[in-house]
Amino acid sequence: MKIDRLLSIVILLLKKNRIQAKELADLYEVSIRTIYRDIEAISLAGIPVVTYQGANGGIGLMDGYRLDRSVLTDGDVKDIVMGLQSLSSSLGGPNVTRLLDKFESIIPDSGKAKFSVNTTQFIVDHSGWGNQSAQESKLVKVKEALSQSRTIAFTYRNAQGAVTARKVEPHTLVLKGQQWFVYAYCLDKEQFRLFKLSRMSDPVVTESAFTRRDLSYEKLPWNEERLAAVKTVQPFTLQFNHKSRHLAEDWFGVEALTEQEEGMYTVSVPFPEDAWMYGFILSLGPDVIVKEPAHLREKIRDMALRIASNYGESPIENLEKHSI
């Protein structure tokens, strides 16, 4: 869009002393004549563009010019930039980078050093450890489908291991618990579902366009659906000792712990009983015990024994035995 190009040119001129018209034409893939028309439009908007003649000539802004930011305090700009930096660590992309450039360009040279210190005192890094190329590729596809309001098709493996082909209308990308999800209307199930990116494979943006459905984000719908499911299940009770107390505090908060005896604590939490919940309990390690209900104690015990048997003298035979 022209307005995007005009704003981008202004930001570029703020960062550089001067630039050739041909460079701008090549950068935005338009003609030099179009660039000069853009410069004229920028001048008419009250931004002092100067054209320099000669061998080192080009297009620039009047010395000392800065975008007016009277509506934003230094603290406002700092908070916005820190939020953008956090978004950049997880979502990335040229749009976020351009936004960072826009805000950093309105800081006077005399204040840039202090601004840099202020915006690096607190960093939220949502990116995972290791190679994230597979997830980044999926994010690109989903963002493309979102921006174009097109359906996306993919193969999905749920927590129980069932594999299905899905076609959905993506509405919202959700970063929750350091994991990316897509909140989308599933055309197969005819209802909204939350899909985990790591369980999606071979996503394809289709040619089918869709109209966004009315959604209220005042109360995040995926949280509401989860809470509704939790209300239908009975809570389970976990026992933590002094070695694992920090895990209880990390996951459930200090106030959720009930001290039973010295060095022993319990936490009662409602969760739908599914594969995720079994894996979560096992991930807490040997210093955490399921106290109630009895059937869950037996389930976790059986799973722990199966895991232990895989590390016996013949793990391959054990795996084959349990898969029969």
Automatic annotation (TrEMBL):
SUPFAM superfamilies: Winged helix' DNA-binding domain (SSF46785). Transmembrane segments: none annotated. The keyword Transcription regulation applies. One of its GO terms (molecular function) is DNA-binding transcription factor activity. Residues 2-57 form the HTH deoR-type domain. Keywords: Transcription, Transcription regulation. Pfam families: HTH_11, WCX, WYL. This is Transcriptional regulator. It comes from Paenibacillus terrae.
